[in-house]
Amino acid sequence: MSDWKKAYSEILSSYVGMYKEARGNLELRNEILAEVKGKILEHEPLHSVELPQNLRVAIWMEWLSQLDPEEQQDEIAIIQQILTLAFTEKNKEDAGEGENAREEKARPTKAGDYKKAFRAFTAAQLVFKEEMDSYDRERRDTKDHKTIGQRTGIVQQWWESLSDDRKAEAGRAAEKWNKLGAPKETHDS
Hints:
mainly alpha; 11 helices; globular
């Protein structure tokens, strides 16, 4: 197998400068990471190259060495958090709290929640609520009510950092909820 970093070095090197220039702008950096991941995935597949399971984090780690030392520490902390969350979720799935259990537990029970069709993004906020709230708490002072406006941007960053598998799981939950509608017991009252 060929090393993915060598195979896609041209794409990686063409974006690293923009990533460095976006220092302090997490939203822009997330957009750059997503764009690079998309370019790699849309590039003609190289059969002898195996891509990492979490390509976005792998790209991020590849660029770490080119950042300032103080900035590296901040980036490493974020990467470790993402990997820890991914590891925790994997352990939960292994322990029996898999996709179906999470989806059932998060399914809205009020008929009013079904007025608008669910999208993957809205379903993810329910299915992975604890993870999303933890991500928010670490990035903003939740005791300061003036920072509530930042939550939308932080939730969007969280969504962008989710793996494709988790986004697909949220999409399946949204489809299921839209198809099933509100639970029957909510119609009786």
